[in-house]
Amino acid sequence: MTYLEASRRQAEKLRGQEHLRILALETSCDETAAAVIEDGRRILSNIVFSQIDLHELYGGVVPEIASRAHMEACDRVVDEALEKAGMTLAEMDALAVTCGPGLVGALLTGVNCMKGLAFAAGKPLVAVNHIEGHVSANFLTHPELEPPFLCLVVSGGHSHLVEAADYGEYRLIGQTVDDAAGEAFDKAARVLGLPYPGGPRIDQLAEEGNPHYLQLPHPKLEGRYDVSFSGVKTAFLNAVHGMEQRGETLPRADLAASFRFAVCDQLTEKTERLLRDRIADGQRPVLALAGGVSANRELRRRMTEMCGRLGVKLYMPRIDLCTDNGAMIGAAACYQLRKGKVAGLELNALPALRFV
Ligand code: KG4
Ligand code: ZN
What we know:
Radius of gyration: 21 Å
Order of helices and strands: HEEEHHEHEHEEEHHHHEHEHH
CATH superfamily of the largest domain: ATPase, nucleotide binding domain
Strand order of the largest sheet: 3-2-1-4-5
Number of helices: 12
Helix content: 40-55%
Largest sheet: 5 strands, mixed
Strand content: 15-25%
CATH class of the largest domain: Alpha Beta
Bound molecules: 5'-O-[(R)-(carboxyoxy)(hydroxy)phosphoryl]adenosine, zinc ion
């Protein structure tokens, strides 16, 4: 019997089992993260080893450095996750790993680590889409949340409005026509001379600034639920460069606040439009946020205010589960395992893996 056949049999048996414990590993970008998750909802351990120090010097993630750092940290982080959970590898029902999207070398490190471990331990392996992981961070924070729900996914590479019709089933509703929200935050931060990663630093600085200091463009787009950040970014860069050329001191807090306002305004407006359309259609929509940018304070405030006004229930991941972690991968994996979806040893890294 091949490894995959054996895994499928085990997954079949696990379907009827009351509790499922999964050891998950995430290495798609610059965090080596492992977690032990029970039933897709409870965190038994969640270890995140951030590589920020290694990349800060270069102002962004250096893929080669990321892969090497993952290679050095994988074993240690996995051991620590098991130890913190007070469990052994033998006690795990399955293993899970992010297979994409992300940096190819970084993903490969994690995929190979978990393939080896799963084969040696004779455990099924579940391959998880990183973005589905971000959405699933909500299951860990809100045990009562179940599909269907609408979800705004805003990360370093994604800005999508989707409908989670069922576990692992997503329909695209709207998306960015150019840059992702996180990417735009990182670029704006760089222009203000803030260190990598820029999003959280802009967010922090913006708390003391005037959001109406700089008027940034509000794009008109064809897609009813689409967003665009490239025009906002260019206008921001031009304004900052202009000030620098005139020798003016940059009002950095006001600039950060204005940029954050422009991004959050667009995201909130399009999400509100979608919710209003659904309500007008006689539905009672529920909204979740996901991805690194969902940690943004202004976005959380604006969404809370807007959903409160519309009477829509809003779910947001706990702040530490918004950015990359292993727990969210374990949560997503649980629902795949329940459906019998397991990976074979031919599993590869899929850097451009799509979400919807
Ligand atoms: O979801 P994530 O951790 O990784 C990807 O899958 O891309 O998102 C990282 C992105 C970065 O662009 C980072 O600057 C941004 O999320 N981010 C934030 C905040 N925290 C993280 N952006 C704005 N405000 C924040 N508080
Ligand atoms: Zn991510």
